[in-house]
Amino acid sequence: MGAPQPGKTTPLASRKSGQPTTIVSVGDVRFGDRKVVLIGGPCAVEDSEQMSRTAAFVAAAGGSMLRGGAWKPRTNPYDFQGLGKAGLEILAEARKASGLPVVTEVLDPRDVELVAESADMLQIGSRSVQNFPLLREVGASGKPVLLKRGMMTTVAEWLSSAEYVLAAGGSDLVFCERGIRTFETSLRNTLDIGSVAVLKEITHLPVIVDPSHAAGDVRYVTALARAAVAAGADGLLVETHFAPNQALSDGAQSLGPAEFAILAESCRAVARAVDRDL
Ligand code: PEP
Ligand code: MN
């Protein structure tokens, strides 16, 4: 037991002795630098108005990147599955109007090329972390990749998934801790803050945290976000909606504009306390 010793099996993802953190650039945004990157946006892209309003309040709070899913991996097949290609077009529009780079999930290896045309960063969701053909395809696309942790994935397995992306030719990869399943059921998932500290040690790649899917409830998102920054996270991926009670998915964990601004402000104070900024 103990911290994984990944050197031999994951040569590309592991940090070599003395190796500095790799800066992953997405447009003007730099993951792994002194500034903690704040990404905000809805769980799912719903329409143009939603995305333009979101881009405005995310930027006003100090966010530097937009998120939003066009394809949603839903547990139930009858739940809203996302707008698909139309969602990508709305994202591209919001990106152009706001100047904020966008990250969006790609679920199907056959869609990688299409998603790569309009997104700045490709998200691999929790449920896809061991979809090896998909990992190879995003690696070969050359686009920056945001690799979520699977809800049942150990740190060592997660690192191996990153190795698939890098071995296929990808070089810009950011890890995203989003909580795992444990015996504890008071929150949607258990945020493994320890994985942030471990990854910062064993990989040279940046690590961010998604407090939204960990908490599952707006009441706890900001506290988890602050803890993430204190633990050394290089960024935060936060679900926001201008009217959370109207959201088509994950409304219960989505912060409204005012709550998002409060999160940014309080995380900025924590960032400064650990010699960073936000
Ligand atoms: C998401 O980011 O909306 C999402 C589906 O997250 P995860 O893959 O972590 O469940
Ligand atoms: Mn979501």
List keywords for this structure.
two-stranded antiparallel sheet
Notes on the structure:
The protein contains nine helices and ten strands. The protein is of the alpha/beta class. Helix 1 runs parallel beside helix 2 (about 85-100), helix 4 (about 130-140) packs across helix 5 and helix 8 runs parallel beside helix 9. The longest helix is centred in the last third of the chain and has 17 residues, at about 255-275. It is globular. It starts with about 25 loop residues before the first strand and ends in a 5-residue tail after the last helix. The relative contact order is 0.17. The chain binds phosphoenolpyruvate (PEP) and manganese (II) ion. Manganese (II) ion (MN) binds near residues 43, 239 and 250.
Quick structural gist:
The protein is 37% helix and 14% strand. The protein is α/β, with parallel strands linked by helices and 278 residues long. An eight-stranded parallel barrel has the order 3-4-5-6-7-8-9-10, surrounded by seven helices. A two-stranded antiparallel ribbon has the order 1-2.
